[in-house]
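Request: When convenient, would you put together a sequence paired with its structure tokens?
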Amino acid sequence: MSGICAIWRDQCKSPERVADALSALTGGLTLAAERTETKNGEAAGVGVSARFATQQIYQDSRVLLACDADLDNEDELENLVRARVPNTAKTASLLAAL
């Protein structure tokens, strides 16, 4: 099994509690030998239990994005944003740039 989860943090909860809850949610999606990853932003957190390379997380100062996508026109989309996106989490970073 694999999946993507997210938690929104309201102002009364600490970032540590969000990280703990996100870790528990991601762990519940995980079977053996899957890659897990979580990222926390100021107001939300996302996690992925990934069986496939298409399941990715990207985070920068403006965007926190989790996706499970396989784009057929990545080169065309990169030309639209006129930027090179990193090879790690390439699809997620491209979607964030768009």
Notes: The mean pLDDT is 84. The longest helix spans residues 15-28.
